[in-house]
Amino acid sequence: MKKVLMGNEAVAYSLFINGVNVAVGYPGTPSTEVIETLKNFKDDDFYVEWSTNEKVALEIAAGASLAGARAVATMKQVGLNVAADPLLSLTIVGVEGGLIVFVADDPGPHSSQTEQDTRNFARFCNLPVFDPSSPKEAFELIKPAFEISEKYKLPVLFRMTTRVCHSNQSVEFEFKREKKKVKGFVKKPDWVILPALSYIKHVELKQKLQNMKKELSVYNKIEGRGKIGIITGGVSYFYVKEAIKGYDDLFSIFKITIPHPLDEEFILEFVKDKEMLIFIEELDPVLEEEVKLILFENGRIISTYGKRNGYVPFAGELDVDKVKDILNRIFSNKLHIKENTLTDILQIPKRQAQLCAGCPHRNSFLVVKYATKGQDVVFTGDIGCYTLGFAKPISTTDTCLCMGASITMAQGLKIADASKKIIAFIGDSTFFHSGITGLVNSYYNMHNITVCILDNLTTGMTGFQPHPGTGKKIYGEEGKKVNIENIVKGIGIEKILVIDPYSDFTENVDKVREFLNTEELGVIVFRRECANLKSRKSYFKINQNCLKCKVCINVTGCPAIDEDENGSIFIDSVLCKSCGLCKNFCPNNAIEKVMENE
Amino acid sequence: MNDIIIAGIGGQGNILLSRVICQLFTNRGFDVKSAENIGMSQRGGSVVSYIRVGDNVGPIVPDGEADILIGLEITEAARNINKINKDSLIILNDRFVKPKNSELEKQQILKYFEKNFRKLTIINACNIAFKLNMPKAENITMLTLICKKGILHFSKEEILTVLSQVLSPPMYEMNKILVEKVYEKY
Ligand code: SF4
Ligand code: SF4
């Protein structure tokens, strides 16, 4: 069968075909579709779930692997930080069934807090890392990744970047699952991490890395015979190929698929007749540094161009045009690599990221904003769609650090600046991911903050995955529902308020204002399902009462309301989700509801 | 012809459209690669897809090399002109959602396109989809019209085959009716 697969889907198909038994992950762009695709596959020896966070996921995968199952844990690069604790210990404890840690990096970044490079993580924790250049290659590399993991009894990192995860390619394959028999857990002292054992295993680990180099080297490849060597990997390989088209005699390409551990002999063989080396890679200079070390240790001196001497940017992603620019700089434009393009180009301002039309978070933020008008308040924010609460005109998010940090940073702010009111916002999925421990801390240590849990009954940002608060499991089937208020009460917090952000705005403002009157730890749960999950029955329109004062636009910032060329205000009937928020601010009753099909 | 750009805003079905076009080429026996840029918000942000027919290339279309620009939204089409050249084919959906901080009006952008590009077609897919009671299907409406007008050479049958491969059965049924109606009426 020949099918167009997204990189993440290719990984999922290949995992399933190669007998993965347990697949777990926490959603995070650009990694989400691996689990989303795997959930479409069913087999009696296959289990898939969304876990509450990445540490949980990796530990489940580790448990399954110790029992001999093939397992995968998926996450994005920042999620790997959360799972770093079990990962580093696993390098010592080891695995039994093949264990792949799938991590999606996000050069750019397109939708992340950091641009961190998982290849560096591989160096840090002494693990092999696969770095495919395309969906097709990703598909092909899953099998050896499992095999290496099983042979060396080590987890294997499988790192892709946004441009591989989220690009599509036609892939030819036979959809046939190779079943792996799971032999079950066998007791062994190895499975208990102890300081004395760690030392011995650390020595073993270094040896294992040495041993696997040759074997992994077969996945690297050399193209061309030119005297100028370009060392590259990941998606940059294709950018290089395209950029040097027509100059093939001049260059040769060394594509590194396994950036760590690197095989010295292979590198030395490649550079033997080279007059110059150029390193083209995204994010950190991992290949550049590793190769340079090898050259130095072998007394090989050769001129190099890369990130370390400023020819290749350290931040952001590359593309063909950027690679052409880099080559032009290195060769002082003598190669004439880049052709002219259109000269007359319209400048169009960026579309600002904003909460969707009808997003219940907009209503919740505005309720809190109005309830605290005139007061000295700091709003701490968190990771999710609602990070967009920082955008104008809502402007109700002053900090954002990492998953769960709104609650804990709020406590730090309160300790340091007790005169201020501190209000933390966190989403439902994030609350389960890593908000709970912070809330326990604020109760235990008596930090008087207010925590607003924005519960839209899904993980909105990554595409509507279920979580413990929804009670639905990955296939949409019933699981046990975890009630957020019960958790809050269970901690011991008594001051709780539950609000429907779509209900009467003024009443909501009054309730919240009263709630904030007392200075003690309290939790407000704003609950209303994500605007994209429900189809509407009505929408709003502007009638002839409109004064063109634009209050509705300026207060809500709802993307469905706009002004046309003639200064008339209109509501985009396709976008409006009928939340009714704008109506509250119109001074002249010019916004009215229209029932669908009228 | 081998490089296509699809530009639009979140919620218009840009990604699905790109997936469908990729599978259309794949079914014809070509190797394709594609990629997309998606903004932070679920809906309303800029979305652009790159489709490349041919295997040995990266997923992103280099500047000036796209042969076809399909604009699901006019401003977003204009945002991506650095990817096309004077000879590129441009197909615009008559849908304008002005970015909040932009001064450019619809007519200005359309004039710009008319002035600079010879091969321009404007299609009212948004309106047709709305009239057929499937406002969310402007993407497939657009595709159907592009094929019907012979801009992309795929038959109705090929479109339906791909839709059945790519969509869930209930979604397929709805879109099938849409494709039939568009072929019949527009
Ligand atoms: S009711 Fe008003 S605020 Fe709500 S989605 Fe529609 S236009 Fe936007
Ligand atoms: S607030 Fe009311 S009167 Fe003012 S522009 Fe909006 S609809 Fe018109």
From TrEMBL, chain A:
Question: What reaction is this protein's catalytic activity?
Answer: indole-3-pyruvate + 2 oxidized [2Fe-2S]-[ferredoxin] + CoA = (indol-3-yl)acetyl-CoA + 2 reduced [2Fe-2S]-[ferredoxin] + CO2 + H(+)
The cofactors it requires, by name, are:
[4Fe-4S] cluster
What transmembrane ranges does the database entry give? none
Query: Is Transferase one of the keywords UniProt gives this record?
Result: no
Iron as UniProt keyword = yes
Oligomeric form and interacting partners? Heterodimer of the IorA and IorB subunits.
Q: What job does the chain carry out? A: Catalyzes the ferredoxin-dependent oxidative decarboxylation of arylpyruvates.
Q: What is this protein called?
A: Indolepyruvate oxidoreductase subunit IorA
UniProtKB/TrEMBL annotation, chain B:
Q: Origin, by domain of life?
A: Bacteria
**Keywords for the protein's UniProt record, in alphabetical order:** Oxidoreductase
Instruction: Determine if Acyltransferase is one of this entry's keywords.
Output: no
- Every Pyruvate/ketoisovalerate oxidoreductase catalytic domain range: 10-183
Q: Please give the Pfam families that the UniProt record associates with this protein.
A: POR (PF01558)
Q: Which PANTHER family match?
A: INDOLEPYRUVATE OXIDOREDUCTASE SUBUNIT IORB
What is the designated name of this protein? Answer: Indolepyruvate oxidoreductase
From which lineage does this chain's organism come? Bacteria, Bacillati, Bacillota, Bacillota incertae sedis, Caldicellulosiruptorales
